[in-house]
Structure formats: structure tokens, C-alpha cells
Write a structure and sequence with these properties.
Elements lengths: L1 E11 L2 E11 L4 E5 L6 H8 L7 E6 L2 E2 L5 H7 E4 L11 H6 L15 H13 L15 H14 L4 E5 L7 H17 L3 E5 L3 H7 L2 E6 L2 E6 L1 H4 L2 H8 L3 E5 L6 E5 L18 E3 L3 E14 L6 E12 L9 H11 L7 E6 L7 E6 L4 E7 L5 E2 L17 E7 L1 E2 L1 H21 L13 E2 L3 E6 L5 E2 L7 H29 L1
Parallel strand pairs: 3-8, 3-9, 6-7, 7-8, 15-16, 20-23, 21-24
Antiparallel strand pairs: 1-2, 1-4, 4-5, 9-10, 11-12, 13-14, 14-15, 14-23, 17-18, 18-20, 19-22
Amino acid sequence: MIKIKNLTGGYHNHHPVIKNLSLHVKKQDFFGIIGPNGSGKSTLVKMMSGVLPFDSGEIYIHDYSIQKYSAKALAKEIAVLSQHNTQHFAFTVQETVELGRYAFKEGFFRTETQKDQEIVTRVMKSTGIDSFGHLTLDQLSGGERQRVLLAQALAQEPEILILDEPTNHLDLAYQKELLDLLKNNIESEELTVVAIFHDLNIASLYCDQIMLLNDGEIVLNDAPETVLRPKQINQTYHTEVERFAHTTLAKPQIMLKPSKDKQRKQKIQINQTLLKIKEEHIILKSPIPLRTMSSGVLNSGLGWYKHFINRHVDNKYNIKDYKQDMCHYLKQSSLKESETVAMMTAAQLENVGISEIETGDFSLLVVVTAGVNNAIDASLGEKHEFKLIPGTINTWIFVSGKLTEEAFLQSIVTATEAKTIALRELNVLDQLTQTLATGTSTDSILVAATQEGAQLEFGGPITPLGSQIGKAVYQTTKQALENYYGNIKSNDS
């Protein structure tokens, strides 16, 4: 569709802005251009749209040199949507869109044909502006005005649409609305889109391919997951970022890393003094947010939380609306939902097991509540009827230390293995299969870390962190279960 070969031009202070640049944009691609200010993004798209001449090299549209197109012929191939709207006349929405048909009108008076009218009506409907076609541009919001200009560009029926920061100055809803419209038109109108983006995350979400430009040269031109890597972004933008996965799409997202606050004179240590144990719940309130990975009833997954609650409920508890019920319970307990990881357990909280371990590099607090009424052999789980019942063995692991993502995951694996050994030693059986149980049907776990101090790379069973987690979880689970069995015996006697 678009081929650029050895393009050089756009002089600034006697030096070319674009330097010997070559690329290929395929038909119906959403092609994004990113790069720091002054990297040559706007200069490049001005050359691609025929607005700015270039010194050497060539730009081809359908293998035909752009320099051989007349202005009118080029307008039938390429439409441009700028970030700056220079239209200050009191045109109506309908009149503004009709201007997009100018290149197709023939004759001295350039009268509008039925085909022109049909195209204008169609693009106004597809962009959702047909309901206010009688209004003037100065009566519209920024997002509405941008949609009108998009409709005007689409009215040209171009094969290529070039956009210079199309979402600049638009709020989130309008950004999504505009880009969704573009994406739909790529499919329905067989459109090819080339767009400049400052927002790397939006570029990742919508673009099929991204070109990272710096100092007029291509750093990388590939799929978003290849281009948006922290090392490349750090080097090009001269800032520090981290990358993470979007929660619902297979698209990378970039996070800025602000400069760290001044280090606290005294590091925070999570220990038993922060625990409050009552008959109805166990609560730990941390003085700082902790990086947490959990399978809690509320706020499961990864996040930063200050408060942790393990609430006792009856084993016949109806959990159809358990999240709403837990939110209500948190409110009654003066805990903010946004700051709290919440779990439920049918185990008696008086049977809680607690362990603390301190080393030179980190310390651990492990809290386990346990009962085995619904003990399960995980390898034979299919033999059981699926029932949602309150969690029974809940394991909390607090680390006063700095964990990597690998360490979080490996710590959970290590803790689960250690819990299974404790169950085996106490000969806990799956009552249905009469085989050794590996846990209960609804166990929950969390690992929370202060993210201060020396970095702990791994959490496997023979690593400094993992070996201590394995030992502590094994001992604490065994302690909690022995308390559980002890209370059963005392109640029976």
C-alpha cells in the first residue's frame, strides 16, 4: 500500500529531520508512529500526505510515486485528520462533511451529485453525527467536533487515512469512541490508517504495527509486543518504564516509574503486633501498602493493599452474593474495599497458627486458619460434587522484603507444597476417596511484601526466601490443624 525508500528531508538548522528512512505499510493496517518530541513524526506524515516536499528518496502509493499525483488525485487516495482544527467558519456539521467530497466534484460550479449525498449520509451515520447535522461546529464538544472531521475525511473515500495525534485533547471516553470508529472503518471500508501517538498504551491497544522513531531514524518497526519493551523505551525516551500485560487483551501496556520518595529512616516490618484476632475475624493493618498476590474473595490477583481480613462464617453460609456481603461487612468494620484483601473461612479462628521468622535480609509472618471438613485429594477432585463453600485453609504470608514477580509465584507454589506435607503427616484423608488429602476444596492464599530492602529474586523451596516460607507454612499449617483436632476432642469429651 505505502512504500517509503531511503527518504530524507525536512531540514531543521541545516540538518535533515528524516534520514534515509524506509518502511512498508500494508493494506488495512492500523500503523502507529511513536517517538519522543522532535523525533520527526509530524515531518514524516506531512511528507507521506504530500504536504511537505522531501530532499531524496521516494514515497509510493500503489507502487506509484507520490510526486506524480496531482493534488486532486492524491486527495482521492489520502485523507488527513490533524490534531489542530483550523476551521473557524460557522459551517454546519452537514456542510463540513460535504467539504470532503470537494475533490470529486466536476465542472465550474462543482455541484453535488446523488452519489455525493449518499456518501455524506453514510459516513455521518457511521460516525454517529447524523442526529446533529444541523448544528454548527462551534456548538459541539471537542469529541463531537473530532468525529465530524473524521466523517469529512471518510467522505473523501480515501484508501489511506493519516492522523497526527488524533486523540490529543480528548478525554478517555472520546478517545475510545474515535479509535473504535477508526478500527471499524478499517474493516468496513478497507481503510489503511497511519497515526501518530504520544500515548504508548493506546498505540498498543489499537495498532497492528508500531514504528518507534528517534532522531529521524527507525529504532524498531514491528508488532506492539516487540516494540514496547522497557529497554527500548527507556533508551529512546530517556525515562524509566515497566511493562505489564493488559487484563483482557493480549496487548502490552507501559507504566512510568516515578522517582522514588525519600527512603524511610526505619524500614517497615510486618509482624504479629499488627494482627488483631477476634472470634468473627482476623485483621492485619499495614502502615504502608503491600504488593500482594492473592486468591481472596475481594481484590484477588496482583495489587497494592494495606488491610487484610480473614472473616469467619458458618459452613452453611449462603455465598450467592458473597462479594456484596463482604463489601457490606468491610464497611461495618471501617475498612475501605479499595485497600483491603478479604477472605472467608469456616474454620474457627481460635485455632489460628502463627509463625515469625527473621533473617538478615528479610522477615516472614505466616498466619494459617485451618479445618478439614471438606478435605480433598486434588488428583481425584472430579469425583466430588462441585459446591461453593467458604474457604477452609487460608494461608497468609507477609514478607518484609522485596520480591520479583517470579518470587511471588514461586512462593505460592512452595507454600502449597509445604501445606500438603503437613496434611500428609497428620494423615488427613479425603473422606470420599479415602486417599490422602492435598488441601480443602476452597483453600485461599496470599503473599504480601513491603517491597523494601534487598531484592529476593526467587521463592523456590531451596532459595533463601522459599526455604523459609516452606518451613514456616509447614509448621504453621500443622499447628493450626493440631489446634483444630484438639478442640474437636475437647468438645467431644
